[in-house]
Design goal:
six-stranded mixed β-barrel; disordered C terminus; alpha/beta; disordered N terminus; 738 residues
Amino acid sequence: MKRRTFLQLGGMTVASALLAGCQSQNEKLIPYLIPPDEGITPGKATYYASSCNFCPAGCGILVRVSEGRAKKIEGNPHHPVNRGRLCARGQALLQELYHPDRVQQPLRRSGPRGSGKFQKISWTEGLNLLTTKLMELQREHSTDSLALLTPQLSGSLASLTGEFMRSFGSPHHLFYELLAPDWLRLAGEQSFGQPDLPFYDLAETRYLLSFGADFVESHLSPVQYGNAFGRMRQGRDTVRGHFTYVGGRMSLTAASADRWMPARPGSEGALALGLAHLILAETLSDKAALAANGLRPEELLGRLQDYDLPRVADLTGLTKESIAEVAREFATTRPSLAMAGEMVAFQSNGHEAVRAIQLLNILVGNLNRPGGVYPAGSVADSTAGSPAGQENSFGELLALVDSMRTGRITTALIKGNPVHTVPPVTGFQEALDNVPFVVSFSTLIDDTALQADLILPDHAALESWGDVVPLAGSRFPVYGMMQPVVTPLYDTRQFADVLLAAASRLGGATAAALPEKSFVELLKESIAKRFSSRKGEDFETLWVDLVGRGGDFSTNKEPGKDFRWASASTIPNPPPPRFAGDEKKFPLHLQVYPSIAFSDGRVAPLPWLQQLPDPMSTVVWDSWIEINPKTAASLGISHGDLVEVASPQGTLRLPAVIYPGIRPDMVAIPLGQGHTGSGRYAKDRGVNPLALLALVEGSDHHPAWNATRVKVRHISKNGDLVTAGHPEGSYRSDLIGI
């Protein structure tokens, strides 16, 4: 019997040749007893194509497997999003798989919530506890008291979770991401009449103007844009694109710029309109592009008369000369491109500021053109019935919190760690205490799992099946595949399979809506529907091809509808920014930003990333606060001192980093640390700056997480700050191996 035939009869295809990574003696004999069709040599490493799901960017990966263990992860050179590159978080996927503190089987709480006391149980008992509770809700006609909260999902898993909740009869299905780009979709809806995310053609532009979009670290698809930025700088003979960055803090992205414009927080929209005013006043705009978008230069200039150069300079704290120079450079260097980022969006006037930046792209005629901005082709996701990874609004999160607080939610199913990533000012953590039955699907006992009554541990990503629709990383639709590259190490089950097992036990409408016996079966059905237009192709051949290559990357598809200024759209006019905290009592603006290592904190449990020095401060294994040297001197603070940071919402203590790349009226703290659980490498390390944030909402009811004021005071000289250059910088080197 051929190996291919054997694997197919065993319920797996050749594309799942992951049996080479099996652990039992019988399974390890298979490669030797049945020679592989592909010519795999015992003892020689094999690569498997898959997709990274550590963030919504959805990069393609190749996993090197040898002797039953995943050894190394690299970027897939054929994947159009990352083109063979991969960030540190993607490479650290290995440490999720081999983390020593993984939950190895189902657990039931045996002590008070938060105590960390759990009892090991079987999957039979765990599924019985889950389905008994769900059947109870059905009998009591209270199916709407079930809530499902997950991170941003796409593809078949998003479709499955949505169908599960719809068929069960609950509207409380919430995707939550702290830094989700729903603000960009909303701005696109109001400016262009469509909620598509943008795809920026950085590689072909000649002048890049970023308003707080840290595309090297975290914005949308950082590996894609970091690669494109390199090509913009060095990929064309005699052409080196110019880069100007606007923002109060010098990020790694800003440090790569030719010009840094540290505008006052909340003034970025005014600056964009000031640039637009000067471009129009000096007749530097693209009149044909304006006409194509239904805009008249004279009328537009009249609408922007309040944004003359002296007033904009006063609002932003920038010089008139620098503003005028950037406006003329941006308008006369074609193609040019303006990007809006999270640092702008999470201000009280962020929505209108983002729209003002979008208007700049129309003025210079770079919509739907090389070197400009297109609708991202990867957004469309027909299997999920909605845009890929579509987020819920912040208002829906607050509504869920209210339902939990008032007892209307009695059962919560949670994948992810919202206890850590939802700012405490929302009341989420206290509201969760009121939910009688909480189920976590975490791989570790993280902050949320500590509050759970039942933990049904998920597979690690490298043990899982799935499909991934990348977020805004390509102009054309991209479809990525995930496949298990090793046999599951422990008695865990994939989250999707647990939902399908529960649906089967519930019977009725839920079982009818989800009749599949496994997620692999559902995934195959989803692929058959998605690629139904490929007539005459045998499905097994299609399946093997997709899994073997890591997805479908063909570019012979029609891109999405072009961007065009909507006829009903108003001209943006950002209101003055609002901030929480009296300026005299709290004189400093606080900026929280995603760590280049940890993002919002989801990968903080991985020691490789804890040991990764921050590129701007070189700090490892800790949190810190960045303070301008002048401000620090006035407060008697030196580098490494322990300081206290207080806001109207809360107080934290952490070491200070004296940082010249930040405005004197600002301080900044990276996200990612401050976990109460999540295993030995993340537990009780650093602080979670979300505890400081006050709830300031913009006119669009979007949260303004960068609109909180703080005060800082010196505590002691002993801040225990450890940096990569410090003799103790590798004091955790004994912990960073797999």
